[in-house]
Amino acid sequence: MPRIDLSLPELWEYRPELPEPPGFDAFWSRTLTEQSAVPLHVSLEPVDNGLVAVDTFDLTFSGFGGDPVHGWLHLPAAPLRGDGRLAGIVQFQGYNGGRGMPHEHVFWALAGYAHLVMDTRGQGSGWTTGATGDPHGSGPSTPGFLTRGIGHPDAHFYRRVYVDAVRAVEVLRRHELVDGARVAVTGISQGGGIALAAGALAPLAGQAVAAVMPDVPFLCDFRRAADLPTLDPYAEIGRYLSAHRDEVDLVFTTLAHFDGAIMGRRATAPALFSVAVMDTICPPSTVFAAYRSYAGPKELAVYEFNDHEGGGPFQQARQAAWLAEVLR
Question: Which residue, of 207, 212, 266, 328, has the fewest CB within 10 Å?
């Protein structure tokens, strides 16, 4: 497979200077303050997942603007839970994936965690199913999600998604069976980028996370990604700008409000990143940018000969061991 980015030694030396957009902190403080007035309205209904070791609940809560956001809550089956409250994990989905079917994402519940699988609004029709719409419109955009609402941070798609993510953390932290001080966030690709955002923003909403596990994260170092011969979703930026030739500064200023390599400067929880050096979707230099800027204690798992599949089951095993140690 071709390498589209720097060599591994060059990646370890890559330290981009990513300017923060004016008013970055004020933008997120205002956003979270506005959304804090919206009641969570949590609904949990048990569903039959066909499994004997995991109990699953159909979850709905109020996300950005009170919009209903769906997910699954998986718990170890009642006889397996033990006496104390459970540590928890909120999982975010890859690009255009949804929560899937009740039996799809049960690894973390089998490992003993309360596991909330959150839909990404408006997605879930690419590689797995979702149930959450996005009722908010946007201005002109190229097909996909990255340029929806690109004209202003207030209108951008990922503003709504990141608020949903913060509220998902709050939902799990509040659950009666969960130890709110031991809730982690994770995800692959887009899910990794959302996890970075949640790790940075949730503490500002009074919902601190205990650990962050972003795998081959998307939504980082946007300008670098747009300048490389990447596949979608980053290629959406170039297609949009090939038509809107006069909006280059506007586009990258808006995207900077949602950049995981900037978000991570506000995060303090321990983090375990992963990166694939042959990645043609989320170039490794963009992941290294996010890793370098992350303010909390951090580790990076490097998969030198993998594309966007990254570490796969190897990384999941490493996550399980790492998280058990961090939350011990």
Answer: 328
